[in-house]
Write a structure and sequence with these properties.
Elements (H helix, E strand, L loop, with lengths): L13 H13 L19 H12 L3 H12 L13 E2 L4 E2 L1 H5 L44 H8 L3 H6 L1 H18 L14 H7 L5 H17 L1 E4 L5 E4 L33 E3 L5 E4 L6 E4 L1 E2 L11 E6 L4 H8 L9 E3 L6 E3 L6 E2 L5 H4 L2 E6 L11 H18 L8 E3 L24 H7 L14 E4 L37 E3 L33 E3 L3 E8 L2 E6 L2 E6 L7 E4 L2 E5 L5 E2 L28 E2 L4 E13 L12 E13 L4 E5 L3 E5 L7
Parallel strand pairs: 5-11, 9-13, 9-14, 10-13
Antiparallel strand pairs: 1-2, 3-4, 6-7, 8-12, 10-11, 15-18, 15-21, 16-17, 18-19, 19-20, 22-25, 22-28, 23-24, 25-26, 26-27
Helix pairs in contact: 1-2, 2-7, 3-9, 5-7, 7-8, 8-9, 12-13
Length: 682
Amino acid sequence: MHLSALPPRRRILLAAAVAAATALATSGPTAAAPLTVAGTTDSPDRQQQYAAAAAEYGVPQSVLLGVSYLESRWDTHSGRPSTSGGYGPMHLTDAQQVASTPSSAHVDENEDPRGDESRPLTVDLTAAAAPSGDTLPVASLQTLDTAADLTGVSKETLRDDAAANIRGGAALLASYQQKLGGPVGAGSDPAAWYGAVARYSGADTEDAAAAFADEVYDQIGQGASRTTDDGQRVTLAAAAVTPDQSGLHKLGLRRAERPDGLECPVRLACEWIPAPYGEYTIPETTIVDYGNYDIGNRPAQQKLEYIIIHDTEGYFGPSVRLVQDVTYLGWHYTLRSVDGYVAQHIKAKDVGWQAGNWYVNAKSIGIEHEGFAGHGTWYTEAMYRASAKLVRHLALRFQIPLDRQHILGHDNVPGITAGNVAGMHWDPGPYWDWSHYFDLMKAPFHSTGTPSTGLVTIDPDFATNKPAFYACNQQPPGVPKPPPPAEPCPLRGSSSVILRTGPSPTAPLVNDLGLRPNGTPNTMHIKDHGARASAGQTYALAGIQGDWTAIWYLGQKAWFYNPASAPTAKWANGFVVTPKPGKTTIPVYGRAYPERAAYPATIPYQAISPLQYTFPAGQRYAVGGVLPGEYYRAVSFDGSAPDDRTVVRGENKYVQVQFGHRVMYVNLDDVQITPASVGSPS
């Protein structure tokens, strides 16, 4: 919409605004503060700021609160932008923020996403990177300018000041409602605002706009109450509203392609944008290769065990274009930040090249989320909710447990060999809110034990847990070469707790030999996750001393701050493994492959290579499941290689354990499984 087509800035009398704001607020938890002539509030109370903005621009307060919740959960994020370039509680978007930052689109470290030594990936990932500045259409990402024009407030203030930001969002909603010919007024029926709410999403398809609006009205029906990231208590009173959806067609948006067989929940905005499966000649050679996934027959041929959560390290548009490149990688879904829109690229039956570990790839579905693990931007509520719906749908369909042993971040996937560990990716990073994500999946992290039950599940309060990471300014996108000197990251909520060698804030961080083979402590560098545990991960208890708790981690005791007054973990119950009697140490693996005798003569043996870590007697690690030794053979485009597209299964079995930040595997023959409460150090 061009500025010239928008209605003129709404001017209302001070007396009318005060009366309307007061009338609105008397039915809620607080009374509104008087408004200034400009329509802002002198009160710092966030609830009153919503009431005042709703009154000034004639928006039902429930609609304003509902939209804001779907955008940001009412958080301010200290003026930092989202991945979509959105600011503040109303997520006012600035396309210039996105357009000015190049997309790195998966180019990170030296990981081979296929993760299979028998057929190494030959594509040059750097050469396949998307062009700088390639972004979503500006129309779906530019609301900050319009909000500034409607309110007379500068863009800088709209970004940084919560009250002004809320006014800007209310002004936008009112302008959309007027454009659609709907009733405007704080006392108008919330049901009549469905079209304006859908338009606010910024979606470029009718399905995505409707899905966003449906979520808003679902939230209005449920109500909500929470304390924001800057300490403000905000409440949305539950109210049953049946929205009038008749205005949706007036938005003039296209309908997404949704063919039969699309593997998405019905109410999720989802479109089929297929990844190619085809052959190509490697540039400057005569070698013919294929991409960008492998044909499979899951779960009939092999059980799906995992769903892998990634971020794109790039923007949605370039990432989707990359997955359509036959010379590039393949993953199953990509989610857009601004509205939670989903693109499916590969069917669940087929094996995407996405996690850097062929064993995990063969047993997983990969989901990419528009975002950056360490750049300082934040993930939108709309995307969290869409992703949670998708993951829950897939988990129930394929009988994948909804826990952190099976819903893994890419940063939880192990390297296949010792030499691959350091190059593994670390997304979605420490700023992904795992606790909220699992709440949305209706699988919250509960306390299931006491200190005597022997396990702890990491679960810090995301809003107040703000580790002092550094070097966010060196992370993509837009980092010059050479990079600038590392700076402290903005203090932000995080799912990660920091692990130390002793029960003291001054004790060195623990060491991850895979990342720092010289044995020196890991660091607080944003991408150095070798001394971190993440929300939802469960570890074996190794000790308690005052406000500190120790877990077994990468062959050592690792301590984290866990005071009773503000706990960062929950006590849990379950099983652990220890080396069998007589074994002083046992190997740890990054994949669970069969023994040599299981392979037919036509399939080369895949070596079972231990990682560099040590699992000595006397240590305990939490059990994530018992898995068969399996290898999926897929090395030819048409399946013509001997015994191609078959699963090799052996007699040996493996136990998945939470060994460090990443899950790993031990041979069942090397360990004994016992209840964690037996021999608990508490």
